[in-house]
Amino acid sequence: MGIELHFALLILVSSVFAGRIIVVPSNGFSHCTDMAIVSEVLVSHGHAVTMLISSAHPCDFRADRKFDVATISVNIGRQEFADNQLDVIVEGMVNPWNMSAFATGMKMLADLCEEMLKNGNEVIGQLRRQKFDIAILDDASFCGIFPVNQLDLPFIGISTMSAMVEFFSNSPKPISYVPCGMLSQHTDKMTFFDRLTNGVQCALSPLAKKLMYWHFDSLNIKYSVRPESSVAEMFAEMELILWNRDFTFEFPQPIMPHVIPYGSITTKPASPLERDLESFMQSAENGVAIVSFGTFIVQLKGETLGRLPDVIAKALSRLPLNVIWKFKGAKTPSLGNNTKIMEWLPLNDLLGHPKTRVFINQAGIMGIYEAIYHGVPMVAVPFFGDQLSNAARVKAKGMGPVLHASDVTEDKLYQSVMDVLTNDRYKLNMERYSKIYKDKPMNNTETIAFWVDYVIKHGAKHLHSEARNLSFMAYYLIDVISVVLVVTIIIMSIIVWACRILCSCCKKTKQQKYKVS
After folding, report:
1. What is the pLDDT of residues 385-425, one digit of tens each?
2. In 10 A of CB 394, how many CB atoms?
3. Phi and psi dihedrals of 495, rounded to 5?
4. What is the pTM of this model?
5. Are residues 389 and 448 in the same domain?
6. Which domain holds residue 499?
């Protein structure tokens, strides 16, 4: 009764401060899934929510969704954009530091943003008449910053890849124990060489930010959105950052009061499975392995990555488990009789099933948190982007072994899974992390609902430190240190000069006494 009363009061209080909210996701399927769930949560707390997307957006919304969708038509096909996006991702997998792939990806997003700016005036006008109170956009929503400024709305950022926290939170960054950048594979325990390379990565972070927003700055000026400000300055004006991290997984580090960790929006108790899926789970005498590498695995290219689906299938066929593999594409001939292929998985529900023994995944952040929530150990196989840093945390926290995509062989993958099955420490660690993750005063959805209400009522600029207004010289006390050094040099010079004068006088006095004697 107490819990039911708590939820009733929460919904009642939220509805009193209900507002009109516009949500702008990035052009990625997983990001859209996150933002759609956020939208549903806000609607359930009494808000009116509209999601703004382009016609090239890959998200498929449920027919019974409770939020509105406003679409800007663009001259880029949905499948065309998705294919090009996957090509860039696959190119970047071979070398995560591939600047050519990075530049191509940014240019592709900029072209989409320009289409939205050229063709979005009518939709923006309609939205302006609805008088929204606030906007929410994720840190990969490069195009989203433009309609937010066109509508002149305060906004909250949802940091799904930690870019907002990295670039715009002004949180202190002790490079001796806080890894810098989403491509970093460092942990909070660094050797001298690790600290050296981490320092270089942090030093290059401002340059990375400039390169990332260069195309979008040009669009800002061309279409006169807010030409007096850079896109980075626009992002820095966000009221609050909702960070999809929890310190059961993230390394401890200092963060500012306007950065609110909430974990993952997709973690929740498991729901019953459909009959045929439940039957498959129950038929597994030794348990089930859940496998999900995302949708791009069938488009992998090259001598090493192109053979990966076949290598994975062979390794899975050797396991003493039933296997459910999320895979979209032509079935590989090496597929074992123990493996069930599905184009979509109710992942949270499968991970919460008592028969699930291990989760083999690409180190995507949502899947990791669902595994933590249900206490399921994993084998992480990162491909690109933040998956690299996520995998480093999986290994450091003892959640499971890590195999990089380019290093995967049939034997290595098989041995890694068997290591999880035969080594109790992974399961015990995950059960402990699960208890810690769940033990908090508000769950993930309550946290998001509370802070959105809070910003609508009060704003959150009072939670920002003065660091955002300091220059580089002032923030790092370079001016103060310079003055102290100059004054010290002057004082030391005076002392040296005085000592020389005294020595000279003493020498002359001694010479005179010697002559007299």
Report:
1. 788 899 999 999 999 999 988 889 999 999 999 999 999 99
2. 24
3. -60, -45
4. 0.87
5. no
6. 476-504
